[in-house]
Amino acid sequence: MQASGLLVLLPVGFFVLAGNAGRIWVPEQVARDPRQRGLIAAFALTSCWAGLGSVVLSFGHHLARLPVSLWWLAGILALLGFDRLQRKRFRPHASAELPDGERMSTAEKRVTVALMLSAGAALAMGLLYPPNNGDSIIYHLPRQLIWISERTVWPQAMPFPHMSVMPALSEWVSVQLYVLAGSDRLSFLVQWVSYVTCWALLDAILQQDGASRTARLYAVAFFASLPAAFYQASNNKNDLFLTAWLLLLWLVARRCIALRTNGLGASMLAGVSAGCAMLAKGTAVVYLPAIGMVAGLRFIANRARFSAIGGGAFVSAAAVITALHYVPTFVLFASGDTATEGSVLNGRILSASSAVSVLVRNLALQFALPFESWNRTLEATTTAALAFLGQGPSDPDTTFMATRFAVIYTPFLEDSATALIHFALALWLCAGGFLRVHPGPQRCCARESAALFALSLLLFSVVFRWQPWHSRLLIPAVALAAPGIGLMIASWRPRPWPAVAIAALWLWLLPAAANWSRPLAGKVTPWMLDEDGAVGRSGRGANLLPPIGRVLREASVHSVWLDTSTSPMHAALRYLPLSTQYGFPTQGAPRSRFDSVLTNLPDTELSRYTRKLIHGLVPVVDFEGWRLFLRREAYRDLERFGALPPVTGVATVAGLAPMLGPYPEFKLPLFANIGPSGAEFWTLAGTHPDRLEIALARYAGSARFSILVDGAVAGSIAVDGTRPTAAVTLKLGASATPQRIEIRPEQIDQTAAQAADASARLLKIQATPSAGQ
Question: Residues near 317 by Cβ (< 8 Å), separated by ≥ 6?
Fold first, then answer.
């Protein structure tokens, strides 16, 4: 069924009109270049309007294509009316026209070309590949499917706690694109637009102190070349979205410092920025205090006049926006209707030695090189330093999920890509590099950047446990250091050194083009996607540059497109770890080997490439034409990581649960809906489960489901509407052969059959091995 993909032009039109309004009516003090003012205004207004729309339409469960379309149409009409009213009352700012400016030097032109190439490459990666980042397929996109199914974004009972508790503003924005396009293919645009908006914000921050265009370009290049930021620009996560709101808050705070007062309008905008940052990602809890401390000290040092009205407006705006997600989430968790997990907070949060332990490990990872001897030496030195502090490298109180500490050069992994040059320059800035900057406002700006970077790193290490994917979590810290880095590099003499530094930053980013998940170069390229039409989620017909009409309108059972008005069981099966890129490859195995393959084509239609991938895999799910094949060796890898109990084989329904160790997200039925025809699963051959646990959630009234084991009714489970979740435990015969588990809605009378909604969400399905295994 074809989706009305052209409806995505509604938010695009809103974005353009918001940018035009910002270009004309936003004061020049925000940014001298009207294009920057327009981009910043378009980002802020579009994000807020989309987020507000998701919340408003959730009342009464109206998050569907028609109401969303009307919401964006109302926004467009409001912008047109605002512009017309403003033109009647005021004349547009003279600064709305593009400034003439001086000619760009050769070095500035080269940096600009590199920036355009990085933005274009990130855009190409997002358009060519469907969402395939680990966290995106684990909870970012699946919870959007659940929202679409329930037509509301309010927190609900979900089996994976990230799907309930994680701040949701970026998903509130992207779910609207999802609904309008009928596809997840354009969801990455939230991050990509944030990536480019960060450039405009960094430039605007430096403009406030009269920095040269060269220094501003160096600052933008420093941030744009950060591998973690470049990767984020083509995925469906939220780190860049958070970074943009933090930079906007810092821009407004510096404006208040310069004016020596916190006016009502500026305070309100700062409060909105702080609230949106908190609603964007949980790590804002460390970056907001860092910005608050630096801004507060500068406010006092400037002998500024504090306005109580402005302060109240700031607190009120931030509190109201933050409460939109956290209050209903708190109520949900208090009810006990959702899963919980181990804390990411430092177990010894007030211990100086534990904070230093996390800080040292975070920095050590960034200094990895493609030389094993260097990495092992750095790892041994770090371990010795931790031992001196009385800390272990994998201390469970300071380490997330007991992950083993190891220094590894990972330029091809988007969550842990190292940034040696970036962090070396930032540490140099903190160690006194800002003293090279010309005295006056620019040196003050560089000093502020150094303080923000140092405080962010320190607070991050105090609050959060160490985990190996901190590269992406520290993107905001690097962004806050960027203005100072740009000023510092521009102050270097003789002249070749700035060019050498900028060239080194871009060279460090080059391996990202051959990354493992969305490569633009290397062995796996977009040209392979046509052959890979039935494998994973790549989709048939995903050519290098597909026609825009096909991108917007094509809806094929072989691709990622889906009709969001139907039960998302098929789409749920798409969000699985499908390859060694984010699965568990056997040590030493070639990267071309897959841990799992998902297809909805019969054997006669599989390509030669797909047959080669499936060879040696075990079919574990066959539901409504979808088949999932898994590689047995992957289980041994999981067991080595401590993710499985010490039993022979994996005694579990569908092969990937119970996951009691560090990777609880790899439960196959996490995101499945039980539709009108029910669902079917198999235990793995060679296992002997004797107990079956099933949990369901339902938000559309009462329903009862029969549970069949090998065709015989073994029990039932009912959700009565008074409590949205229900669970049951059944005995199984300890059979060595695969057992078929079916969950079927019980028959209802024919008069109500057409109007009834028999669907329910499968929260948990787990087969437990018999004693002694």
Answer: 268, 271, 272, 274, 275
